[in-house]
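=== RUN LOG ===
request id: a7f3
mode: sequence -> structure
chains: 1
length: 337
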Amino acid sequence: MTSSAPTVALVGATGAAGSTVLRVLEDRRFPLRELRTLASPRSVGSTVTFRGEELPVAVVEASRLHGCDIVFFAAGSATSKEYAPLVAAGGGVAVDKSSYFRMDPAVPLVVPEVNGERVREHRGIIANPNCVAIPLAVALAPLHRAFGLRHLTVATYQAASGAGRNLVAELAVQEQDDAAGRVPSNDFYPHVLHRNVIPGGWRMYGDDTEEEVKVTQEVRRLLELPELGVGITTVRVPVAVAHAAAVWVELETDADPATARRILESAPGVRVLDDPATQAYPTPREVAGSDEVHIGRIRRDPSREHGLALFVVADNLRKGAATNAVQVAELVLEGRR
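=== RESULT ===
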């Protein structure tokens, strides 16, 4: 990798995840010598807007990744499996937003605020964690460092955009149908999401959803707690953007809520809004568009020894995905200076 501004490629440039990467690159003024926007053959002929210019979208293929310093993968596991090793073999760095490499012990799984030093261990591929695991790790790492983390219980409230543009569009149609007196229907998701909450929609692994398995495994890896007890139920809710989670932790040592609040207020990437008496706490509506992890409702959990409860909200498209990936790439650039 050269010391000048990097040549960057974005694979999956036309999808929801890829378009958010473009916005974050622009927002953060990421240095670029060249940006190659790539996607599947069905996107050929389309363009994407970046820094006021219309960029043509080309089909992803090995020749178009040659000479790239950093490649963001936002196109699914099959594409990452095929092309990320080619980027690494060519001397570039693949920042992969799919789940394919996340549990590979040879590939660092990185959240900069939690374990950014792991970037130095990369061999050409860095995995971006799940959109729930990222904000949970950002919220939990400061508490774990201060008090030790013994057990974690989570109930999620996950936005439609986590399942992609199709569910967001389907939810909008369902809302319109309901307002017009028509019975909403569902084609993309197993149940109508409008006016509903759905504790499924992911593939099942035994009694657990794929999402529950991913979050459990990835939080353990990010916090370096392979034996951490985790109980989690993932739920899809009729919100467009921003995932929320009710979180209960059992700590190794006692922590009063005021101390925990001060620690979280000083933690990187965290914004605390916690005054329930005035109805001040984070909600998806206000958090959408933010790059921080928002935390409120910090209080004791009397059902567990050294127990705390908190409410965590983050934009799943930004900090839960694109922003984290761009932050990882920024660490890669810092390491080469």
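=== NOTES ===
The chain is about 30% helix and 25% strand.
The mean pLDDT is 97.
=== END ===
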